[in-house]
Amino acid sequence: MEKRNVQRCSGTTRRRRWWGLRRRWRMLGLFEINQEHEFYSFTCLMKEGLHAALQTSIDTPGPDELSAEHYKSEQTQVHKDYEMQTFAGLVFSSLRYSLDINEEEYKRSLTSDSCYLQFMSNSKSKADFFLTNDKRFFLKTQNKQEVKFLLSNLMAYMDHLEKYPHSLLVRFLGLHSIQVPNETKKYFIVMQSVFYPDERIDTRYDIKGCEVGRWTDPASTGSPVKILKDNNFEGKHIILDQKSSWLVDQVEIDTAFLRSLNVLDYSILLAHQPLHKDELDGKHSFSNLIVRTEKSMAQDSPTEEDHPTISLLGGDSFRLASDTIDSGPDHVQDTGEHSGHSIHCQEINLPSVNSTDAELHEFHAHHRRLLPNFKNSVHVIDGPELRYFVGIVDIFTVYGLKKRLENLWKSLRFPGRAFSTVSPATYSQRFCRWVKDHTK
């Protein structure tokens, strides 16, 4: 009898937690795509198709080097009621590998029995947004023009990420389409979620660096998720101290790349959450410094033997580089305890003392920073008191004839005011200026 009561209580507790979680999802604008949802059938096709496509990726070892043909590849898998197409599968697989995303783990997240979540926001985009149930990966429908743009510039995108592995550009992890007979083909892309994990995030911003139409009323009704905008951020700052110059410089590097693609209207997604005391205390611990240094170097050095070594100098003193080398934006002093000895740590944005001058130059050339020990590390920057989630998204809008005409119309309607539809050069300059003015 007592055992049955314990089981009954345990079941009640689980149900309460589940309903509490679902209630919190609704508050965040996330709705479970269950059997009654309009997108349930579509997401089931997505899951089934992704399971087969990713299993093929797991079973087929990737090449040592990508060729031009890999960027053009299209693989079609025929299922009972539809066809699933995978574009440049090996290219995206190599990118996932560089991000240390295990293929089995990736497949498990995208194809689990748990329902996808629909993300409802105040965005003007006509796309449909979904999240995996663990909220680690974002899926977004794309139109054919956007897909063609991404595929035509995929090699340049991959080259940029190889040169700057800590870039703030959103990471595209897969591109697919689903064709149901007698229906319009639907394209969708899989991305790494910038806001992961989001359990403690309470405020999110979508920043474009302009003023017209860039205000969201926090008290308005409608969508539960309030993605605040540029004018909501006035009077606030991204406080990073020594890391502020890294952020400003990396945004300049990334927007220069986007300018070369003739695109505009991209956004920087921004959110923050307070650092807990244990996170503040552990951020500069001896073991954490080692893990973070290896993580910072691993994306260009995927094999274990290529990871940087960290040397102990003069007995108990531990340093990542000599005092004569400029430490860059991530310089902090920290003293901790390890194996009963006092460890004097100097955390800097460089490889180990065993590195050659060429390696040090390469590290700086790639504009690295010391990454946090975090799954979503490329989109996470820790300030003195807050953890920031930062990523540049929506990079498919080309400055073509339609946008040039829109620019002319807005120039007449909003004379002297800053609106989003401007030339890529003007857009990137203004975007960078906003980041510089709001970072300290």
TrEMBL record:
Gene Ontology biological process: phosphatidylinositol phosphate biosynthetic process
Start and end residues of each PIPK domain: 23-439
Keywords: ATP-binding, Kinase, Nucleotide-binding, Transferase
PROSITE patterns cross-referenced by the UniProt entry: PIPK
GO CC, one annotated term: plasma membrane
Keyword Acyltransferase (UniProt): no
Origin: domain of life: Eukaryota
Pfam families: PIP5K
GO molecular function: 1-phosphatidylinositol-4-phosphate 5-kinase activity; ATP binding
Protein name, UniProt field: PIPK domain-containing protein
Organism: Oncorhynchus tshawytscha (Chinook salmon)
